[in-house]
């Protein structure tokens, strides 16, 4: 039977491979393998060693302790202040008046001239107070805004009263002052118009609870406020000697006490002063450090909590990240067993071994020295094993390798492989360390080290 003339058979072209396709396929496979190996391999990142410094400065919130005397009122009535807060009052200076009826306030208001402007000095005082608050404001402690409000209000009222008092004839009218009691300073000191219960606090009374500002309450003594007999009316800081107490750990306290005197920066205005150091540990094991000063008390007389920075010595050297530091074990051998030999004159030891016939033979084995003491070398543990015997040069004395020790160091990658270098740490914080430079077996400036020591092994070739 004849075939169907209308049936169409599809023609299959033969696979035509050429050299171009083969090369492309090989390159594609190679690229895929490289990508897979890249993502499965730990990558060594280099770090260039540079000179630097780390400051061991520390910032603390301290409690100010002063010789403070609270003066109470002998009468009830409305209090008006005439001494400026933060200024020194001499014995006999007028500090306040107590108006038993409130008639003095009415009289002053009725007899004001209509204009009670502040002097340039008064305005300068207010500007200084506002600027200090602006520079030191912390949004996390919004309660400071209310303290600032009371402080400014009190300052303005006291300045206004002070200016009104200049017109003695106006306020000395007998009809207005018959029931007014004047309060004069019995001792000299710095006038403060607030109390907080910390006035009698000493270093030996300290606990961590005093540093909890959530429980701290400062009572402002406000002008023209009604007070009762026996209420606090003002406070005097009577001695220029004062101190700031901070809470630390016992180790830090011991280091500070050993210094005897520490330079302190006050963060509020960046002033610096030297403070004498003392410490105390209470029954709960809490440690506190006192920094005593003989000046500047007047500058901070209204503040109980003061932020300070301890300006300790600054360590300089080679600055490296802590992630590059590693601890490695080494064999320790006496110096007299290490000699120079081989074609390059390198350091090594005479290692005893046995040939196939069981005869003892000695061969020179090159080994790297990583550190030394007066009598011993730290040698690489990759070519030596515990229990190996080494021979003392020009002698038959043997030494069994067994003693080990560890060194702190980094992996130097200058030569393309991980070469351990011992370091001597001068100072260290949470991120960096300062190490000695140009030591015999250590680092030099501009050396390249592995940024992360955990990503490399000793003598490993580095592929960055």
Describe the structure.
The protein has 464 residues and is α+β, with helices and mostly antiparallel strands. It has helices spanning 19-40, 103-110, 120-136, 143-164, 168-171, 174-177, 250-259; strands at 46-48, 50-55, 58-65, 68-72, 77-81, 88-89, 94-99, 180-184, 189-192, 194-195, 219-220, 225-227, 232-237, 242-248, 261-266, 271-281, 287-293, 305-311, 314-321, 326-334, 338-341, 346-354, 360-366, 369-372, 376-379, 389-391, 398-400, 404-412, 419-422, 425-428, 432-435, 448-450. Strands 3-14-17-16-15-18 form a 6-stranded antiparallel barrel. It has a 5-stranded antiparallel beta sheet with strand order 24-25-20-28-29, with no helix packed on it. α3 packs antiparallel against α4.
Give a nutshell description of this structure:
With 464 residues, the protein is α+β, with helices and mostly antiparallel strands. Helix content is 19%, strand content 37%. It is built from 7 helices and 32 strands.
Rg, Å, rounded: 40 Å
Give the end-to-end Cα distance, rounded to a whole number of Å: 75 Å
Shape: elongated
Could you estimate the helical fraction of the residues in percent? 10-25%
Number of H- or I-type helical stretches: 7
Major sheet: arrangement of strands? 3-14-17-16-15-18
Low-confidence runs: 167-172
Major β-sheet, in short? 6 strands, antiparallel, barrel
Strand coverage percent: 35-45%
């Amino acid at each position: 039977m004849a075939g169907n003339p209308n049936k169409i058979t599809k023609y299959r072209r033969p696979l035509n491979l050429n050299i171009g396709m083969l090369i492309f396929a090989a390159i594609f496979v190679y690229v895929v393998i490289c990508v897979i190996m890249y993502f499965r391999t730990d990558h060594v990142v280099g770090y260039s060693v540079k000179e630097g410094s780390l400051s061991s400065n520390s910032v603390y919130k301290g409690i100010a302790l002063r010789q403070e005397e609270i003066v109470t009122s002998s009468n009830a009535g409305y209090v008006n202040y005439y001494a400026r807060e933060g200024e020194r009052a001499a014995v006999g200076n007028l500090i306040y008046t107590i108006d038993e009826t409130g008639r003095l306030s009415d009289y002053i208001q009725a007899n004001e001239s209509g204009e009670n402007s502040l002097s340039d000095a008064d305005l300068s005082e207010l500007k200084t107070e506002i600027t200090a608050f602006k520079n030191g404001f912390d949004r996390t402690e919004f309660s400071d805004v209310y303290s600032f409000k009371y402080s400014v209000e009190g300052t303005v009222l006291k300045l206004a009263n002070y200016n009104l008092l200049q017109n003695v004839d106006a306020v000395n009218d007998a009809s207005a002052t018959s029931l007014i009691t004047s309060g004069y300073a019995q001792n000299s000191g710095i006038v403060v118009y607030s109390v907080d219960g910390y006035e009698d606090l000493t270093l030996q009374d300290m606990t961590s609870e005093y540093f909890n500002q959530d429980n701290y309450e400062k009572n402002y003594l406000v002008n023209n406020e009604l007070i009762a007999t026996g209420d606090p009316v003002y406070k005097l800081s009577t001695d220029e000697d004062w101190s700031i107490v901070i809470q630390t750990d016992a180790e830090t306290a011991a280091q500070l006490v050993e210094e005897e005197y520490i330079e302190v920066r006050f963060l509020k205005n960046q002033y610096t002063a030297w403070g004498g150091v003392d410490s105390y540990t209470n029954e709960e094991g809490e440690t506190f450090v006192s920094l005593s000063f003989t000046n500047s008390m007047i500058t901070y007389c209204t503040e109980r909590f003061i932020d300070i920075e301890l300006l300790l010595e600054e360590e300089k050297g080679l600055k490296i990240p802590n992630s590059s530091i590693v601890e490695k074990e080494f064999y320790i051998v006496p110096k007299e067993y290490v000699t120079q030999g081989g074609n390059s004159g390198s350091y090594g030891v005479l290692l005893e071994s046995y040939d196939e016939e069981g005869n003892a033979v000695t061969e020179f084995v090159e080994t790297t020295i990583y550190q030394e003491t007066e009598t011993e070398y730290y040698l690489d543990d990759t070519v030596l094993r515990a229990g190996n015997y080494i021979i003392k040069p020009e002698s038959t004395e043997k030494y069994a390798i067994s003693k080990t020790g560890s060194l702190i160091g980094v992996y130097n990658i200058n030569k393309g492989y991980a070469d351990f270098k011992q370091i001597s740490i001068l100072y260290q914080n949470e991120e960096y360390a300062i190490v000695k430079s140009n030591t015999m077996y250590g680092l030099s400036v501009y050396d390249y080290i592995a940024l992360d020591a955990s990503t490399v092994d000793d003598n490993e070739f580095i592929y960055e």
